[in-house]
Amino acid sequence: MKVNIISLTCCAGCISSFLNAGEAFLEILSEDFQIVYSPTFIDLKEIPKVDLAIVEGGIKTEEDEKLVREVRAKSEFLIALGICATHGGITSLGNIFSVKKLLEKEYSILKGTKLPELKDLMYPICNFVDVDYYIPGCPPMPFLIVHTLKSIVNRKQPIRYQSVVCTECHRRIMPAKLDRLYGIYEKEADPKLCLVSQGFVCLGSLTRDGCGAPCPRAGFTCFGCRGPADSLMYRSRDMYSFLVKVISKRTGVQEESVREELYRNPFIFHTFIFSRFERFKSRERII
Ligand code: SF4
Ligand code: SF4
Ligand code: SF4
Q1: Which residues touch 70 (CB under 8 Å, ≥6 apart)?
Q2: Contact 124, 82 (CB under 8 A)
Q3: Domain spans in the chain, listed from the N-terminal domain onward
Q4: Which of 81, 156, 208, 269 is the Cys-Cys partner for 223 at CB 3.0 to 4.6 Å?
Q5: Could you report the per-residue pLDDT of 139-169, keeping only the tens digit for each?
Q6: Ligand 3 within 6 A of 225 CB?
Q7: pLDDT for 18-57, tens place per residue?
Q8: Is 165 close to ligand 3, i.e. is its CB under 6 Å away?
Q9: Cα–ligand 3 centroid distance for 201 (angstroms)
Q10: Which option is the CATH number for 2-160: 3.40.50.700, 3.40.1190.10, 3.65.10.10, 3.30.1330.60?
């Protein structure tokens, strides 16, 4: 199987995660898998026709759109790798500003530099081309990438994860009576108790499982890098209100106060709250 690997607007961390698969990565290469185009690994100017394209990053520039359309036209299957590609990801935080304000306020240092033409928002790639498989994560776990690639090579459907991170977390969920929420560095966390029950803002109850909950297991809050679980993507689009209700119920803090604190709390990465994913046609394609 011939493969193109492409990076759009992103940090390139997803391709690094792919390399972190170690021996499993070498195993894939020795199987039916040949990388023929990748600006990270290979110096080749023309994008060739291939069986599979792996695309990391989202669409923020006109150049991104042009590139992803060309890549799609030249491949049989296409994987959106990482939450920038699948949902817009952390780079979508720029969506809270207009392009004008973003350039003036955040990138004033680049004044006078010729920049690529920016789109109004950061978009996931499915807003412009058909996607065959989505592997969300920031970056996705190496084992999820390897499993998906092996499944495609063997013409099998990869395993799908449809529940939430809380189902993979060993912490006990208990209702509490707290007077406020806490930043993760403000107090020591009980290693056995749900972080939300202790007043920390963990997004595990909204976020797609499959990662094995490494963050709450290590004592850090889940920031939602696997994107919303299926149930949240279609039944209710108001994820913020859902999160407020969960936190209020587990902490005993009034919903209004939770809402106010969420906007103020610097420990929350609003990764998918600001993301866009209108064109997901099929949940079956999300790993
Ligand atoms: S999903 Fe995360 S790791 Fe991957 S490119 Fe985007 S910001 Fe980087
Ligand atoms: S909210 Fe976070 S800490 Fe609590 S059970 Fe879910 S993943 Fe674990
Ligand atoms: S626990 Fe949350 S932030 Fe950590 S890897 Fe899983 S989805 Fe991403």
Answers
A1: 47
A2: no
A3: 2-160, 165-264
A4: 269
A5: 999 999 999 999 998 889 999 999 999 999 9
A6: yes
A7: 888 888 888 887 767 899 999 988 888 899 999 999 999 9
A8: yes
A9: 13
A10: 3.40.50.700
